[in-house]
Structure formats: C-alpha cells, structure tokens
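input
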Amino acid sequence: MKHMDTLLERNRAFARTDAKDRVPAVPFIPNRQLVVLTCIDPRVDPAQVLGLELGDAIVVRNVGGRVTASVLRDLEWISHLHREKTPEADWFDIAVVHHTDCGSALFADETLREQFARLGHHDSVELAELAVVDPAKTVAADVETLRAAPLLDPASAVTGYVYDVATGLLTEVV
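output
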C-alpha cells in the first residue's frame, strides 16, 4: 500500500475542501450535463484534458474508450433513470473520446490477442474489434453505435473526438 499513502493524505486534504458540496443533487444529472466515454490510459485523464471538476460529468473509461455491451447498458440505464426520475431536466451530451497511440491497438496483434484470449477464455474476434488503430474511424463507429441505440434518448447529442497525446488537443470527428 506504499503507493496509496500519498493519495490518502491528498484525500484527507480534499475532504477539508468544499468540492464535495458542489456535486449534483441527482447523481445521473451531472453539473455540465455531460457523459464522457474514453480510454483508461493515464495520459487521457478527462478531468485534466477537459478541465472537469468533481460532479461535472459522468466519466466512463475502459480499454480504448470503446462502446461495449456493458457501456451501452450503463448509458441506457442512465437514460432510463433520466426519463423516469427527472423528465424535466435537460438531456446530457455524450462525448466519445479515442486517442492517438492507444495501447488497445495491440489487440490487432494476433499473437498477443490469441495468447490473452486463451488465458482468460475470451473471444479473440471480440477482442480484435476493440483495437483502436485508427482513432478517427473507431470513434466514428462508436458514435454511430450510440446514435442507433434504441434505449438512448435521441435528445442526447452524441459526438466523437480524437485526443492527440502529443499535442494535448482534441479534434472533433463526428
């Protein structure tokens, strides 16, 4: 736990601030009406890249920032809650952010992918579909998947961006 010691000190300092008091009253209606789907890569921290504060957005992260069955289920659940519990609130925007030099591109390496698939009893074809080799193409495909999802409210604007890890800039793709 030596890596956590500093973080626990930082947490105690955070708890003494008023940041936790500025969070939304309804957990599925973030302050900025925003959902961000992005990669787990530590170079792509949405709080830093987008200047988000606690409570500003719902952040969903996975390898590659891809729309998977679990991501889709979670976003559909949030949409359902919004419709049923807060129908008068504005609808949120969904931003899909893929990035350059993504480690998920290694899913395209057949040898690595097959080894991993065998170890974890995963489906190699499904893993290959997660590879972000060309982030402009994969972000466009994921935006299309979300826009076509019947349980997501059409009032939610879905957009896609590529984050360049070298420049720090986002480029809108869709």
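quick obs: The chain has a mean pLDDT of 96.
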